[in-house]
Each structure stands twice: as C-alpha cells, then as structure tokens.
Amino acid sequence: MKNIILMKSSLLLIVILVIHSKCQQDLSGSIASIPRYHDTPCNDTNDIVSYFAPGLSDGYTIQINRRLTKGTQIRLKFDMEAMITENKEISRLVTLGNNVFKLVLLNDTTILNFEVRGQYSLLPPYLVSIKIKGEENCNEPDFGYFQRYPVGVEPRPDVPNLQCGRRQGPNQLITNGLLTKPGDWPWHVAIFRMERATLKYICGGTLISNIYVLTAAHCVTINNAAVLPESLGINLGKHNLIGGNANSQERGVYEVIAHEDFLPKTLDNDIALLKMSSAVEFNSNIQAACIWFDKLQEKLPSQTVHGTVTGWGFDQTESLSTVLQEATMPMIGDLECIRSKPLFFATILNGKKFCAGHRNGTSACNGDSGGGFSVYVPYEDSNFIKGYVKGAWYVRGIVSLSVAKLDTALCDPTEYVVFTDIGAYTDWINDHMD
C-alpha cells in the first residue's frame, strides 16, 4: 500500500510540472524545456523572476510581473555576452551593445517574458541591471542563484564583463610611441569632419558598443554647440590613416551627445558620445572596449595605474602620423601634477580629470584628443574555460588637453597630459546610451 501511495505522489508531481511548464509556455510563447526551478535574479524585488531547467540548453526565462503600459522602455544589462529573444507581439528588442539591450512595449501587459541565452549553456549571463522608465529595478543583482540548484552551471569567477575589451593580438603597450599592428587596438576609431567639401581627420575615439563611440566634447562642438551629425564621419578598424585597411568600416553619425555641462574654457566635462547611423559588425580589427568603473581598481596588480594611449597625433617630427601609434604611461596624482606646473594644472584639475605621462617625450599630442586611456584589467580565476578569457581592456580616460610649447599651438611632450576621468561619468555614459 505504501508503494502505491508513492507512485501516485510521483504521478502528481509530474502532472504539476507539466501544467507549470504549459503555463509558462503560454506566457513566454517560446520556452522549449520544462522550467523546473525559479528564483529571483535581483535580491531587492520579488516581481522579477527567473525560470530555468537543468542544463540550460535553451537558456532561461525572465518574467516581470508588473502592470506595464504601451511605450514603456525597459533597459537590460548582463554581465557577459547574451542573446535575448522577446515576444514580438508584446515588445520590440533593440541591441545597444556591451551586453545592453532595450525592450519597447508594443502593448499593455501585466506579465512580460523574454528568454536569455549565453555563449555557453553552463555559463548563463546574469542580470546586472534592469531599468524601467529610467528607474533602476535591480539594485542588488544576484550573481550566483543558478548555483543553488542542481542544473549543472559552472562556478563563475569574479569577472565584471566577459565580452568587451578583448583582441586577438598580444597585450601591449605617441610621440616617441611604438608603431602598432592591425588589430592591436580594435576599439580605437578615427573621427573626421567635413571642411570645405573635404573630410578632415580631427580626433580619435573609443568604440564602446556596436553603435556608440566615446570621445571628447571639444572634438565635436563649436562655440559650445554640438556640430551637425551629418558633418562627421567615423572610420573603424583603421591602422593606416590614409589608404585601405582590411576589415575596416565607415559609418555616418546619427546623433552627437556632448555633455550638457561642457565648458570649453576649462574643458570641464570634456566628454561626448557619437551614435552612429548604423551598427558596426565586429571582426578581428573592430571590437568594443569595456567602460571603466571604480571598483576595478581592486583588481589591478599595483596601486600605480598604467594605461595605453593610441592615436595618429603629431609625433616627434611634429607631423601627423599616418600609422596608429601607442604609448604606455602611468597615472599621476593631482598633487604631483600640480607641482610640475602649478599655474596650469591647479586651474584645470577638478576631481573629474586626471594626469598621466612620463615627462620624457612620450606623450599624447595634437590629434590624439578624444582617444582613450586604456587599462588592462586581469581577471582572477579566469581559466574556468581554458583560453576563454584572461582579462580585458577598459577605457579609463579620454585625452583632453596638454601643455602647449611656448609660442606654438603644439603640445609639449615633456609635460603631463590631462584626461577626462571615466570613473566620474559612468552613469552619464550608461544613461545616454539608449
């Protein structure tokens, strides 16, 4: 009799699982496997639920249990490469790059579902942020809930991003800089502006997604007003500034987003985003850099931060370089920077900029403006999949200004260079990448 009762109980469990699966399939419209487990991906809310099954071969489903109206925009960010599948009758998906997505609701709904898949089924992307109408709804993301269930998920290292900031070439180090090889800096771009019916190179920039380029505000403004987007052009994957480049691409600019508090006189808030007219296709010479945030400081092997600046700026012959050059330099504390030239740096540094350089002739110069100060961040315990990732490059600063030589408009390579500090503008960047 006891065995019969157990058999009935097992049958009941199977029936319950099938019914649960059918309910979820009706809601999401595309779940292929039975979601045997569920948990909340954000510790600070129970309205957002993750449904998943052993193996996660079909990914997992996130369900938002809220009344949402037509036109609502939902911004999603994951900690590694993700592919999102939405219910096309309910929402429209926009891929923003750097593991960021946007859902726009086409109808009112009380339950919104979408599927998430990663590059590896047993390394599922974790939700980092979910903004609804611009308001954060996941202030405490849970980066380990899959491991609480017997679904076969591999342990994850403490890695902030597993997609951006990687290249195929070796990890390397502009005046007195080193010549680069194609593909060494796949996120560095060339920005051109139309002048007298001719496109003229004006600045560098950093690709931070498949649609956005980060640069300096002074590169894309005139008299404190953003230039017309149609006057700009962007070349990506360039190594030689003139002539053909394998795997290079060209894009127009759809929108110029200069910081609203940019001050040309002091170059305060010298930061801007360029939204390209169409998304780029990533290849060996075109990749996005990661965006710096201050907690990464803990992962660096030393207190002194070394970054690499790349550009086609003026070299030691005071000529614009046609081949992309690179120079590695240390960040310098504000006090040391001010002591080197008090009258100049004391009026420039404001807590949202930093100095870097050697004062030995290796420097960024005219033409390098807008380019990134890229820092390599090694990842601990990153051999969980052999050869998958060992670290990534993060854009830490933007070339802003330098001391000019006496009676000239050219930079003095024996002085420190001032950079816009990305750490002070992470929220601004994320808020404007929509």
Question: Could you characterize what this model shows?
Answer:
- The protein has 434 residues and is mainly beta.
- The chain has helices spanning 2-28, 334-340, 342-348, 426-432; strands at residues 37-39, 48-52, 60-64, 73-78, 82-86, 91-97, 100-105, 112-118, 127-132, 135-136, 178-179, 188-195, 198-207, 212-215, 221-222, 225-226, 232-236, 249-258, 272-276, 290-291, 306-311, 325-332, 353-356, 372-378, 391-402, 417-421.
- A six-stranded antiparallel beta barrel has the order 21-22-23-26-25-24. A six-stranded antiparallel β-barrel has the order 12-13-14-19-18-17.
- A hairpin with a 4-residue loop joins β13 (198-207) and β14 (212-215).
- The chain starts with a helix and ends with a helix.
- Residues 1-33, 169-176 and 381-388 have low confidence and may be disordered.
Residues in β-strands, percent: 25-35%
Low-confidence stretches: 1-33, 169-176, 381-388
Largest sheet: 6 strands, antiparallel, barrel
Principal-axes geometry comes out as: globular
Question: Helicity, in percent?
Answer: 10-25%
> What is the residue-mean pLDDT, rounded to a whole number?
82
Instruction: Give the N-to-C terminal Cα separation.
Output: 63 Å
Figure out the total of helices. Answer: 4
Compressed to H and E, one letter per element, the order equals HEEEEEEEEEEEEEEEEEEEEEEHHEEEEH
* Protein structure class: mainly beta
